[in-house]
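note to self — DONT lose this again. spent like an hour looking for the file last time. sequence + predicted structure for the chain T wanted, 266 res
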Amino acid sequence: MTQPPVVACDLDGVVWRGDEAIPPAAGGIAALRAAGLRVAFVSNNSNSAVGDVVAKLGQMGIPATRDDVVTSAMSAAWLLQHALAPGARVLVCGGPGVREALADAGLEGVDDGPAEAVVVGFHRDFDYDALDRASRVVREGARFVATNLDATYPVPGGLIPGAGSLVAAVATAAGAHPEVAGKPEAPTVGIIRERFGDIGVVVGDRPSTDGGLAAALGWPFALVLSGVTASVAPPGGEAIPDPAPPFVDADLGAIAAALITALRQA
């Protein structure tokens, strides 16, 4: 049976900013679903377990299941599952989402070496000791995986340091460059194709990663201006590319009708 086209939506800056909903998003998602489109949620934020993401969506009036959600933690685990033996030790420099994804992939998340790999993702407990542990194990020869390289995440009132900022610290201390799992890299592309098929559009607020994912998939990119992007790049954010993507609008609610028309034609 042919799968319906999928709208792969980012979360931070598209559906919410921190713990605050972006109000038009729920209505936009409802309209997309009413038109017969599949809506998936593809996030570079690796911190939360999938069940917590689903619960947060529900609290914002957006029903979802675990199968609707892809995170960069899952992409990192997918990458390592294809490279390491079952039960391999992986040092976690990240949040609960990374630990859950590694366990689901049959790998053992640990707090210190020895380990065969190190995964670095966004988490608010990052400190000097975490930097010391992660960089030391990378220097000892462990595979170095970044969930993603987003330098910032949008929250109410502005931006906070993202996974890319933490990864940069570990890379500097370890003298090493990471493999990247999240958007727009191959592990995330692989999961999306396996789960959702070959026809869709990517909706996001960040041209570098969301737009890059669309390009890697060969799908159109729909840029919303409810997150980190504006006509002139804000500090820590990005500018609307020139040439602009095929779809640009204020938020997911405003852009939904154009996506419905385009995907029906596809």
